[in-house]
Amino acid sequence: MSFPDLTPDLATLMPELRGRLMANQPLAPYTWFRAGGVAQLLFNPADEADLAYFLKNLPASVAVTTIGLGSNMIVRDGGVEGVVIRLGGKPFGEISVEEGARIRAGACAPDVKVARAAADAGIAGLAFYRGIPGSIGGALRMNAGAHGGETTDVLVEARGVDRQGNVRVFTHEDMGFKYRFSAAPADVIFTQALFQGRPGVAQDILAEMDRITATREAAQPIKEKTGGSTFKNPPGDKAWQLIDKAGCRGLVVGDAQVSQMHCNFLINRGQATAADIEGLGEEVRRRVKESSGVTLEWEIKRIGRA
Questions:
Q1: Which of 1, 9, 50, 242 is least buried, going by the fewest C-beta atoms within 10 A?
Q2: Is this structure's pTM higher than 0.90?
Q3: Catalytic residue at 104?
Q4: Burial 173-207 (b: 16+ CB within 10 A, else e)
């Protein structure tokens, strides 16, 4: 389906806008599942100031959705109404080393590149990001973690722009981190973060990252069209164990399948629709509830119209 084109009206409202506006832009290419509908309007801001200008002048009636690398997301087949903002380029992807074993990274910088930059600089404590298939913006929003580390362990402060176009800085305390959760205002689009590591030996850190890579490759279907871990681990349980116990390993809906390798991963076998993938996830939730009495909570973000 397609939506009414918003670009002429917004171009009139924002004559000084420098970023790129694209109407009815397919979003499937921007997601790891490679499925889903279009964005009514996709906006790639030129830099933080351009993002702030856009949000300040955007009518309040127009919905805003932000996507990153699309590694932890299902875009529903009916598409996303309003504006979808996707950060990119050097202004949002730059990574720099600062004094005191600190790393500053743009929100669209891939987690793995942040881990590598820290390792090359002899900064320990961020190697766990090697095991997270996303970007820093997503890591801030959901307190991403893996292999014994979480974003809350290393964040000093985060910077972003709110829906009114105000640039805001959030301390670690402001972020209100919990397991796969941040209390930062939902309307804030993160633009960068500052992390605190500790002095280390580059060779040792790189070796740790290699171990993380080997562990992921042996246990997770990382070469498939997947979205990463589908469900959060319930308190005292492992989601994959509950899914396995419910007999869902290898379960298929349409062209979507529960991974045989790791059953907390859903896979697009080639032609799955977003409805196939989400429907498979809901069937897994139903069977786990029936089998174990536990209601699994989605970790993957789902956006748009069904």
A1: 1
A2: yes
A3: no
A4: eebebeebebebeeebbbbbbbbbbeebeeeebbe
- The string of pLDDT tens digits covering residues 141-186 is 999 999 999 999 999 999 999 999 999 999 999 999 999 999 999 9
Q: Is 249 helix (H, G, I), strand (E, B) or coil?
A: coil
> Are residue 96 and residue 85 in the same domain, yes or no?
no
Catalytic residue of the set 163, 168, 180, 211: 180
Query: Do 201 and 227 have their domain in common?
Result: no
Whether residue 180 lies in the annotated active site: yes
H-helix or E-strand containing 198? Answer: strand 198-199
Catalytic site includes residue 34: no
Q: Say which of 71, 182, 229, 259 is annotated catalytic.
A: 229
> Using CA atoms, how far apart are residues 243 and 288, in angstroms rounded to an integer?
6
Same structural domain for residues 236 and 208?
no
Same domain, 178 and 106: yes
Tally of CB atoms within 10 A around 53: 20
**What three-state secondary structure class fits 172?**
helix
Which CATH number is 110's domain given?
Answer: 3.30.465.10
User: How would residue 1 be classed by pLDDT, with cut points 50, 70 and 90?
Assistant: confident
Same-domain check for residues 299 and 225: yes
- The catalytically annotated residue of 48, 150, 208, 299 is 299
